């Protein structure tokens, strides 16, 4: 009948539009089956390149005084809660500083740990005026520590030629500043090698 021919032509044309990548023979083969599965070809979207956000330059950071601590904020008592947070952070990092803990394992974790909030003491130095300085580390840079003392004085102590000690739960660790000339972010990825003798 004429109606069935129109229907057949319509279906064939519909399938051709719906599946442009398919050949006529394959479409005809599909028409002989009971079920027809229509395929969908979505249009490919052009990938948009992400723009990298540029940070401040060193000059801009200095002009904005981003890393400067205001004089009214330079008080030891303000940063004691930071020290308590640091102690808990180290205990969690080392799974508790137990008496049977292996010192070299703890030392290895401390070398990569964040030291902001740690109380450190300068035990050795080529400059005698630095020896004995004790306080909380407020900022760590590549070459210096900024330390707030109990006398509410902000000290900038160079790492080079200085040995620092920090104590937590009876465990004392020594930091040789000359081997520690890295930013905090760089230290976390660095592999430190064990050396027999270390000097200033």
TrEMBL record:
Any GO molecular function: ribonuclease P RNA binding
One GO cellular component, as annotated: nucleolus
Source superkingdom: Eukaryota
Record's subcellular location: Nucleus, Nucleolus
Principal subcellular localization: nucleus
Annotated signal peptide: none
UniProt keywords, alphabetically: Nucleus, Phosphoprotein, tRNA processing
Family membership: Belongs to the eukaryotic/archaeal RNase P protein component 1 family.
Binding partners and assembly: Component of nuclear RNase P and RNase MRP ribonucleoproteins. RNase P consists of a catalytic RNA moiety and 10 different protein chains; POP1, POP4, POP5, POP7, RPP14, RPP21, RPP25, RPP30, RPP38 and RPP40. Within the RNase P complex, POP1, POP7 and RPP25 form the 'finger' subcomplex, POP5, RPP14, RPP40 and homodimeric RPP30 form the 'palm' subcomplex, and RPP21, POP4 and RPP38 form the 'wrist' subcomplex. All subunits of the RNase P complex interact with the catalytic RNA. Several subunits of RNase P are also part of the RNase MRP complex.
PANTHER family per record: RIBONUCLEASE P PROTEIN SUBUNIT P29 (PTHR13348:SF0), RIBONUCLEASE P SUBUNIT P29 (PTHR13348)
Protein name, UniProt field: Ribonuclease P protein subunit p29
Organism (species): Horornis vulcanius
Gene: Pop4
């Amino acid at each position: 009948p004429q109606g069935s021919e129109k229907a057949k032509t319509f279906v064939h044309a519909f399938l051709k539009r719906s599946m442009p990548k398919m050949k006529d023979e394959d479409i005809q083969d599909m028409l002989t089956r009971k079920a027809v599965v229509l395929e969908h070809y979505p249009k490919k979207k052009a990938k948009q390149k992400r723009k990298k956000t540029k940070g401040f330059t060193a000059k801009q950071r200095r002009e904005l005084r981003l890393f400067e601590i205001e004089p009214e904020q330079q008080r030891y008592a303000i940063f004691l809660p930071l020290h308590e947070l640091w102690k808990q952070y180290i205990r969690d990092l080392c799974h508790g500083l137990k008496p049977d803990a292996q010192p070299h394992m703890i030392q290895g974790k401390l070398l990569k740990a964040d030291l902001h909030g740690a109380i450190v003491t300068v035990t050795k130095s080529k400059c005698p005026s630095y020896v004995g300085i004790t306080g909380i580390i407020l900022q760590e840079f590549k070459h210096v520590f900024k330390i707030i003392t109990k006398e509410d004085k902000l000290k900038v102590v160079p790492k080079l030629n200085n040995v620092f000690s920090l104590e937590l739960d009876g465990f004392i660790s020594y930091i040789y500043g000359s081997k520690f000339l890295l930013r905090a972010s760089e230290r976390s990825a660095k592999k430190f090698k064990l050396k027999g003798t270390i000097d200033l």
